[in-house]
Write a structure and sequence with these properties.
Blueprint: H1 5-56, H2 60-70, H3 75-108, H4 114-121, H5 124-132, H6 135-139, H7 143-167, H8 171-198, H9 208-242, H10 245-258, H11 263-278, H12 282-319, H13 327-352, H14 357-381, H15 383-409, H16 413-417, H17 421-437
Helix pairs in contact: 1-3, 1-4, 1-7, 1-8, 1-9, 1-10, 1-11, 2-9, 2-11, 3-4, 3-5, 3-9, 5-8, 7-8, 9-10, 9-14, 9-15, 10-13, 11-12, 11-13, 12-13, 13-15, 14-15
């Protein structure tokens, strides 16, 4: 039986809180153990498999959520086809990664050994399968299982970084091994849940028709996902190119903390995408997205203000004096990150309606803007310039998405931006219900 959207969102927010706690602790261990330069090299190293997955996953995870919700294909067809396709795409990505290491290492990863970068590429098969199978639970709106799997990522990273980085002192290699082991842990649990819930383990029923349709649907929004990811992480490579690895390490801490504000938007978006894909009439979709959007923005503003006030204390306490320079770029990033939380909700609405290409068109504009701003501001202002460029790009993204959502669906801006009395009453009712159960 499907749970309500509020229940699923709350459940996912709880997962995000746990993930953030585990994630910050693991980052603290790695950052303090490796120092700013080592943290920067680790950040760049794990960016390679992440970027390769982002470039070559063909939107398969997004398609999975959409088609599971539509119930057009059997679970066996979706599972078997996803598993096979993930392996093929990961092998292709490894080949591309090897070419990057041999021909572009000195440009992108100058201070990281080629041997270490080749080790990192071996994570790709695990990464592809682990990303593309748990979305079956998301499509079915079974967020209990989906959230457990996601929590294991940061929990596993914490446990393994304690072992390989803190106790064994393996340095950057230990941090990379910890990242890989956490992905493997998620994959093992995913297989366990799929076997237990749907008797899915050995692939038995491939579907060329599903493969074709999922690629067609996924590709429409895939370019958008690639560009959006580049908007998130392009500044890391440009900082490494214009500045140094230590600057990447310092800036990565600012990014890590500021993006914790997305806890609510990530949680709501995961639920919203699946729910909008399952709704039939536009009126219900408009009402549901507007509710999610304005409440996500409101809570993100509160979170942003809290982090801004305590930013200096948080960074010094968690990561040490070496990362003091993270404070200013962190504060610059906050306004853009807060506003972008609403943009994530609107983007998932477009995708849930079967129109992911809207995100692609917007992402092209934002990617060009972000690149030009970074090229201008990083040489002039260093990591502060990178933060300003990213924050401005986020704000522009939300402005465009808001206009498109409003015009296309005939929804007033105030309906999906400004908190309403009914929202406050909803919080009160849920709080009373929780207290009564307690």
């Amino acid at each position: 039986m499907k749970k309500g959207a509020f229940h699923n969102s709350l459940l996912t927010i709880t997962r995000q809180v746990l993930s953030i706690g585990f994630g910050i602790l693991s980052t603290m261990i790695i950052a303090r153990s490796l120092g700013a330069e080592g943290q920067g090299q680790y950040t760049l190293a794990i960016l390679l498999p992440t970027i390769l997955y982002t470039f070559f996953n063909a939107g398969l995870s997004t398609s999975t959520v959409f088609f599971v919700g539509k119930k057009k294909y059997s679970d066996e067809e979706i599972y078997s086809t996803n598993l096979f396709t993930s392996l093929i795409l990961s092998l292709f990505s490894i080949l591309i990664g090897i070419l990057i290491v041999f021909f572009f290492k000195d440009f992108l990863f100058e201070n990281i050994s080629a041997k270490l970068m080749l080790y990192v590429l071996m994570i790709l098969p695990i990464l592809f399968i682990q990303k593309n199978l748990p979305t079956i639970f998301q499509g079915k709106e079974e967020f209990e299982k989906f959230n457990i799997i996601v929590i294991l990522n940061q929990f596993g990273l914490l446990v393994f970084s304690l072992l390989f980085v803190w106790f064994l002192g393996w340095g950057i290699l230990g941090a990379i091994v910890s990242f890989a082991a956490a992905q493997l842990l998620m994959l093992i649990v995913t297989f366990y849940f799929l076997k237990k819930s749907y008797n899915l383990f050995w692939p038995k029923k491939y579907s060329i028709t599903y493969l074709r349709e999922s690629f067609y649907f996924g590709i429409k929004g895939h370019f958008s996902n690639v560009l959006t990811f580049l908007n998130y992480r392009l500044d890391m490579f440009l900082i490494a190119y214009f500045l140094d690895d230590a600057s990447v390490g310092i800036y990565s801490i600012a990014v890590l903390l500021s993006e914790r504000i997305w806890m609510v938007s990530q949680s709501v978006s995961a639920v919203l995408f699946a729910r909008v894909a399952n709704l039939d009439d536009d009126g219900s979709k408009n009402k549901f997205t507007s509710l999610a959007s304005r409440n996500t923005l409101f809570i993100s503003v509160l979170g942003g203000l809290f982090l801004a006030v305590f930013s200096h204390w948080l960074i010094v306490l968690l990561f040490g004096e070496e990362y003091m320079q993270s404070v200013v770029p962190f504060l610059i990033l906050i306004p853009g990150v807060v506003i972008f939380s609403m943009g994530r909700v609107l983007a998932n609405d477009f995708t849930g309606r079967g129109q992911p290409e809207i995100n692609t068109y917007i992402a092209i504009v934002i990617a060009i803007t972000n690149l030009l701003l970074n090229l201008w501001l990083i040489p002039a202002y260093g990591i502060k310039g990178a933060a300003l460029a990213t924050s401005c790009a986020y704000v522009l993204d939300v402005i465009i998405k808001s206009i498109v959502f409003s015009v296309k669906n005939k929804v007033l801006f105030s309906d999906f931006i400004i908190l309403k009395r009914s929202d406050i009453q909803l919080y009160k009712n849920k709080l009373v219900l929780i207290l009564k159960k307690g």
